[in-house]
Write a structure and sequence with these properties.
Strand content: 25-35%
Mean pLDDT: 85
Radius of gyration: 24 Å
CATH topology of the largest domain: Immunoglobulin-like
Low-confidence stretches: 1-51, 56-61, 618-625
Helix content: under 10%
Number of helices: 5
Shape: globular
Largest sheet: 7 strands, mixed
């Protein structure tokens, strides 16, 4: 058995974000242990610096060597931010070139070589520095929108005396850096792990942060250190991957600075995070739905605006605002737009302002202009906005007072829908920062909130060209049916979704369920059959082989478009069909530089065919082998077993469970604790 055969399950190949709907009332699970309300301080060995540490040379110092590469602020970064890219590990022949054109990042003055927008970033990256962050996750209460949410789970800098925050601290790095993040779990009732969404994790798949697959959950009062190389550049987010925990607030923005496919003057900081928001825990919402749902834009919302029938119980703060105060009409701003929702797909727009789209997920694209973008759960877009409002047949008149609504419509993709007429007015763009006026502008009319589909296929043209080879797993790859079956509770209480392989009959409802205490990563030397519920798909290919997957909504049906996310890879979208039945004879696959990203929406009336190389097994580089009966020698395995030992001790005392045995209505006590797939 080849290593890829063993590891494809660890990377899970395709993981879908579950679009959840309220299906029954029930208790809040996944909160099993009763610990003291006052947690002890973390032990000394976990007390890393509170603020991020960058191993860099002080560019203001007279001691900076003259024979090293450049130190510079990323283009458009506010001076007060203080963040610098540092390439002093490279020779002095290399200089920053992004001030000449945003498509260039570094240039060698002797050879004229460049790291730029067309550099094949999976093969070539500059050499940056080590960036260290220390975070903790805590139980907290958070008032984002005029109603307290008492079951929030939030990130903060470890040891920081300031309140925890939503979104969490901004993780920044530069193309070619190495990022190291120490994560301490200071929650009372949850394990956790942290996924770095969209990160390539080449040869570091054990840092992917999916409990039950790449690690055991981090137990309360324990710490795990994630470390990975920044091979890509662009916008993303990090979030916990312990069931639906992230929807309680455990998310934060992540920016990898690098080149851009169009010019801009200033980057809006921090990135724009859009999310749905409820006032009951997500562990309860999977049964009952979100209580008093709302939309937040960078942590601000108005619970009365999403549904006018819901009264606020605390003071509603002003919405998110951005000022173009005094800017010339030619000034251009970079907006990094991210959807971190539990249940909502958004259409983002700014009244009277066009959006120039320059990247989709971590993939730089040929720029195109539109009035709005549809952003699925987990997707990201970088867009450039010019300080120059327009008026045409598709929009209202230019605002005399210079105030414009920033809108986040809920697309008709099966999630919660706004009830009140102005629910989507979640931010304000002002040309006069001192103005207190409420905008009176009207929305663009050239799109419909009833739409539910990705940005136009033909518009997503990657700047780095890929040519896709023939499928190595059959003439048209392998077929997986996306099944939704609300009757499948006999498997486990929240068994709703599955990707059923055609080789298994294609129509079988056989959902995945991981074992928190026995992650796939610790079973890479398995030679016998895999545990059936792990849903391992064995593959035996070389690193140059292409794997094609056709993902098709099953006949049980679903609502809206379902987001599919691939870990450890960008995938090529060979075909994305709507209102078309799948059949191998009618496929129209694009193999010459097709759209590429890491989250795609599968239309329930069609299908998608994706392709990726079998080149990210990672296990061969981890030195996982050991003599028969001998001790473990791999640091990765040793640490994984230590984390699992802490987890098993924490989880193993059923007397501490909030609902032991059949008290939660389940005959199997394990179902009281883990009522879903676990991821």
């Amino acid at each position: 058995m080849h290593f890829f055969d063993r590891v494809v399950g660890a990377v899970i190949s395709v993981i879908s974000f579950v679009t959840l709907s309220p299906v029954q009332h029930g208790i809040e699970n996944q909160t099993p242990l009763q610990l003291p309300n006052q947690l002890p301080e973390p032990v000394d060995r976990y007390m890393e610096p509170v603020r991020p540490v960058q191993h860099a040379i002080d560019s203001s110092s007279d001691s900076v060597p003259s024979d090293v590469g450049p130190i510079f602020a990323p283009p458009g970064t506010p001076a007060e931010d203080g963040f610098l890219c540092d390439y002093t590990a490279m020779s002095s022949d290399w200089v920053a070139c992004s001030n000449t054109t945003r498509e260039c990042w570094l240039e060698n003055t002797q050879t004229q070589e460049q790291f730029n927008i067309t550099t094949p970033y999976e093969d070539l990256t500059p050499t940056g520095i080590l960036r260290q962050y220390s975070l903790e996750i805590v139980d907290d209460s958070y008032d984002a929108d005029g109603m307290e949410f008492n079951e929030a789970k939030l990130f903060k800098y470890l040891g920081d005396t300031k309140p925890s925050q939503y979104p969490g601290p901004w993780i920044q790095a530069c193309w070619g850096d190495t990022v190291e993040v120490s994560v301490t779990n200071n929650m009372a009732h949850n394990g956790t792990s942290v996924h770095w969404h969209g990160v390539r994790q080449l040869l570091t798949m054990h840092m992917d942060g999916v409990n039950g697959i790449t690690q055991c959950p981090i137990a309360p009062l324990d710490t795990f250190v994630y470390k990975f190389r920044v091979m890509q550049y662009g916008s993303s987010w990090y979030h916990t991957h312990y069931s639906v925990q992230y929807a309680d607030g455990a998310v934060g923005p992540m920016t990898f600075h690098g080149p851009m496919s169009a010019e801009y003057d200033e980057a809006i900081s921090p990135p724009l995070i859009m999310t749905d928001w409820g006032h009951n825990s997500a562990f309860d919402a999977v049964y009952q739905g979100l209580t008093s749902p709302d939309i937040l834009l960078n942590g601000r919302g108005n619970v009365t605006q999403f549904n006018n029938a819901v009264p606020n119980t605390t003071i509603v703060q002003p919405p998110y605002q951005k000022s173009f105060d005094g800017d010339p009409p030619t000034k251009k701003y970079l907006f990094r737009v991210i959807n971190t929702s539990f249940d909502m797909t958004f259409i983002f727009s700014i009244d009277n302002h066009l959006l120039q789209v320059v990247s989709a997920d971590f993939v730089a694209i040929e720029p195109y202009t539109t009035s709005s973008i549809l952003v699925g759960i987990g997707q990201r877009y970088n867009v450039i906005v010019e300080a120059n409002p327009v008026s045409n047949n598709n929009t209202g008149p230019i605002a005399a007072d210079g105030n414009y609504w920033i809108r986040t419509f809920t697309a008709d993709c099966g999630g919660h829908q706004g009830v009140s007429p102005n629910y989507m007015e979640t931010g304000i763009l002002r040309y006069n920062s001192s103005s207190p006026a409420t905008p009176t502008t009207t929305e663009w009319t050239d799109f419909s909130p009833q739409e539910c589909g990705d940005e136009p296929y033909a518009s997503l043209i990657p700047k780095v060209n890929w040519t896709i080879g023939d499928a190595s797993n059959g003439p048209n790859g392998e077929q997986f049916d996306l099944w939704i079956d609300f009757r499948g509770k006999s498997v486990y209480p929240l068994a709703k979704w599955t990707l059923a392989a055609e080789v298994d009959g294609g129509d079988q409802f056989d959902p995945m369920r991981v074992n928190y205490s026995n992650p796939t990563f610790l079973n890479l030397d398995t030679d016998g059959p895999w545990v059936k519920s792990w849903r391992i798909v064995p593959e035996d290919y070389t690193s140059t082989d292409w794997i094609f997957l056709a993902i098709i909504p099953g006949s049980s049906g679903s609502t809206g478009a379902h987001p599919i996310h691939l870990h450890g890879h960008d995938f090529a979208i060979l075909e994305q069909a709507s209102n078309k039945a799948y059949h191998p004879s009618t496929l129209n696959l694009k193999t010459d530089n097709p759209p590429r990203r890491d989250v795609v929406l599968v239309d329930t009336s069609g299908y998608v065919v994706i392709a990726f190389k079998a080149d990210n097994a990672g296990a061969c580089e981890l030195d996982l082998a050991k003599p028969p009966g001998g001790p473990d020698t791999s640091p990765a395995i040793i640490e994984a077993k230590r984390v699992c030992g802490k987890w098993k001790a924490w989880y193993g005392d059923e007397g501490n469970w909030a609902a032991p045995g059949a008290a939660c209505g389940q005959t199997d006590p394990a179902m009281c604790f883990q009522d879903d797939s676990g991821v």
